[in-house]
Amino acid sequence: MSTTVTYKGNTLTTAENQTRVLKTSGKYLEDDVTIVDVTSAAPVLQTKTATYTPSASVQTDTITADVGYDGLDEVDITINAVTPPSLQTKTVTYTPSESQQTDTITADVGYDGLDEVDITVNAISPTYVGSGITRRDGTDLSASGATVTVPSGYYEDTETKSVASGSVTAPSTISGTSATVSTGTNTLTLSKTVAVTPSVTTPGYVSSGTAGNSSVSLTASVNTRSSDDLSVSGDTVTAPAGYYASSASKSVASGTAGTPTATKGAVSNHSVDITPSVTNTTGYITGGTKTGTAVTVTAAELVSGSQTITSNGSGIDVTNLASVDVSVSGGSPNLQTKSVTYTPSESQQTDTIEADVGYDGLDEVDITINAIPYPDGDLMEFGTTGLAGTSWTFNSEISASTNYYDNCNLSFTSNGINYTTIFMQVVPGIGAMIIYDNDEVYEKSLFDSTGWQNQAYRDITITGGTDATNADLIAFIEANATQTS
C-alpha cells in the first residue's frame, strides 16, 4: 500500500511500510510533517453455531467469538420454542361470614394456572343480626321524668314509651311595679308590665290550653300642656313636662345688628394694627351682612427716611427705610494661575479643579493628563475586558513592519461560525497568514496571492478569551482592522 500527498503542486508518494518527510519547517508551520505508511494484517473471524432456549425471565442473550478469534464472521442460531402453560377453567361458590369476607382461589393440581374463574357469592340474609348486636323491643325502653332512655341494640319494630301526665291550676299571684304613659295624635296610651306566676299541681306532660283568668286594672293622671306653659329666658325657651295635645311655640326677644367700624394703630416695622369693632343690641338677629367704613394705609406710612452704605458688609438693617444709597469702591479679584497633573482611572475620568485658599478664583489652569498604560508601557484604550464586546472589520490586506507570530486564545464569531483561537503570522516582504481554529481564512505570499478566502471572514465579533487583553494582539488588530462597535 502507498500514500500520495500533494501540496502546492508538489507530489510526494510513499511505498508500503515507508516513512517520508514533507519539508515545511519555516514555511507557515512550526515543524516538518511526517507521513508513515503501515500495512496491517487481516482480522481472524469465526463462523459459529449456537442453540438458545428462552425462559419467562430471559428472552435475550449475547453471542461472542471464541478465544483466538478477532470477531464473528457468521452465526447460525437455533431457538427452542417454549411449551404453552396448562390453564384451568374453574367454578367456585363462596359464602362470607362475620370473621371472613375474602378468600384465595388457586388452580388444582395438574394445572399451571387459572384461565377463567366463575364465582357465585351467597348473599347475607336481610334479617341477619350480627353476634355482636343485642336484639331489643319496647320493654327495653325506660322513662324518668321528662326523659325516655333507648338502650343501644337492634329494634326490629317501631317502639314507643310515654312520660307521666301532669296538671296545672290557674295563676295564683299577679305582681308588677312599672307603668308608663305614651302619646299619639290626640291619644293617651297607658301601659303596665305585670308578672304572672302559674301553679303546677302534678308534675308531668301537660297539654296546651288556658287555666283560669286574671285581670289588671290601671289608672293614671297626666298634666295637659299648651303654649301658655312655655317660658323664655334670654335665648332659651323652656317646655315643662306634660301632654301637649297640639304644637306649641314661644318667641325670644329681637335684637339689632350694629354697623362695623375699624381703627388704625401706629406703624411699626413695616406693619400697622387694624382693630375692627361692632355693637349689637341683645336679642335674635336675622342673618345678613353689614359693611362699615374702610381703613386706608399708605406706603408713606409704612416706610420713611434713607441711608447711604459706603462699605461692604452683611446683615445691614434697612427696615422702614424708603431708600438706600450704596457707594462702595471695589478692588480687583485675586485670581490664581494653577498647574495640575491628573491621572484618570477606569472608575473615574473627570475631576474638579478649584482655586487654593486665599484666592477669589482661577485665572488660568495648565492641565497635564497621564494616559493609562498597558503592562508593557503602551497606551491602553481598553478596560479590564480588553477586546471582549467589540466588533472589527479587517483590512483587505494584512501587514506588519516587523515579523509577527502569535497563536491566541480568543472567543469570537465570523461568517456565522463560533471560534476559540486565532493564529496570525506576518513576514514583511514575504507574506501573511490568518487561521481561525483550523480554517485558513487569509493567505497572501510570494507563492499565493489569494488573500481572503471569503470576504465574510473579514468581520469578527469578539466575546472573550484569555488573550482578549493581550497587548500585542490588541495592537495587531488596531493596526490591521477598523472597529465597528
Quickly give the structural class.
Answer: mainly beta
How many helix segments? 2
> How do the strands line up in the largest sheet?
30-29-28-27-26-31-25-32
Shape verdict: flat
Mean pLDDT: 79
Q: Please compute the radius of gyration using only Cα atoms.
A: 62 Å
For the report, how would you describe the main beta sheet? 8 strands, antiparallel
Helix content: under 10%
State the total count of DSSP E strands: 32
Strand content: 35-45%
Uncertain runs with pLDDT below 50, 5 residues or more? Answer: 373-381
Could you tell me how far the N terminus lies from the C terminus, measured between alpha carbons in angstroms? 55 Å
Descriptive key words:
40% strand; 485 residues; mainly beta; flat
Overview of the molecule:
The strands form 13 sheets. The protein has an eight-stranded antiparallel sheet, covered by helices on one side. A two-stranded antiparallel sheet has the order 1-2. It has a two-stranded antiparallel ribbon with strand order 3-4. The protein is mostly beta strands and 485 residues long. Helices cover 3% and strands 40% of the residues. It has two helices and 32 strands. A hairpin with a 2-residue loop joins strand 28 and strand 29 (439-445).
